[in-house]
Amino acid sequence: LKVTKWLMESKFDIIEKSDRNYRNIELNLNNRYYRRIFDVLRKFNDIRCLELKNCLLTTEEFREILEMLSNLEELKLDVVEFEDINLDEIKNLRNVDKLTCLQIKAIPEILVHPLLVKFTNLKRLSIMQLSRKAPVDAALKLLSEDTNFKLEFFEISDFGYYNFDQHKSGLL
C-alpha cells in the first residue's frame, strides 16, 4: 500500500474501509505527518515492511510507529525529517527485535548510532546520502564496541564523500 498526501486528504475512507491485510506500506507524505496514519497502521497490524519517505514527524511519533509495528522486519527511512531530535525517545525504543533490514537515506546523522544500537538483530544495513559531515566511520566503530552485529549485507554509498575508512571500521 502506498499512502500519499493525496490519498490521506481525499481518499482516506477507502483505506479505512479496506478489508485487505497489507504487509508492505510506503508512507510518502511530502513533509507532512498525519496523526490519522496511526489508524492505518493499527488496522494493518501485520506490517512487515515500512518505508517512510519524505516525512516530517517528531521522534516521539517515530518511536510510537515503530513500537506499534511489532512484526516489522524491514524499515526504510528515505528523507525523513524530524521536528525535534529527542535521543531519549530513540534510546527508550522497544519492540524492534524482529527488524533485520534497515535502509537509511538522508536522515539526520545524529540518529544513526542511536538507531543502530537499538536494532541489534540487523542482517542487512544500507546507508545513503548523509551529510558530508556525517561521522559514519566513527559511528560504525562505536557500534562494533556497543553491539555484536551479524550483518550479512552492508552497503554504504559515496563512502569517499564521508571520508569513510573501512580499515578503521574493521570491515576488512
Could you give a short description of this structure?
The model has no long low-confidence stretch (mean pLDDT 80). The chain is of the alpha/beta class and 172 residues long. It has helices at residues 5-10, 12-17, 37-43, 59-68, 87-91, 112-118, 136-146; strands spanning 2-4, 24-28, 49-57, 74-82, 101-105, 124-128, 153-156.
DSSP E strands, number: 7
Radius of gyration: 16 Å
How does the overall form come out from the CA principal axes? Answer: globular
Mind describing the biggest β-sheet?
Answer: 7 strands, parallel
What separation lies between the terminal Cα atoms?
A: 39 Å
In N-to-C order, the SSE pattern is EHHEHEHEHEHEHE
Low confidence ranges:
none
- How much is the average pLDDT? 80
Helix content: 25-40%
Given the helix and strand composition, which structural class is it?
alpha/beta
Q: Could you give the order of strands across the largest sheet?
A: 1-2-3-4-5-6-7
What is the count of DSSP helices, taking H or I runs of 4+ residues?
7
Fraction in beta strands: 15-25%
Write up this protein.
- The structure is a single chain.
- The chain contains 7 helices and 7 strands.
- The protein is of the alpha/beta class and 172 residues long.
- Strands 1-2-3-4-5-6-7 form a 7-stranded parallel beta sheet.
- α4 links the parallel β3 and β4.
- The radius of gyration is 16 Å and the shape is globular.
- The model has no long low-confidence stretch (mean pLDDT 80).
Key attributes of the depicted protein:
about 170 residues, alpha/beta, 7 helices, about 30% helix, globular
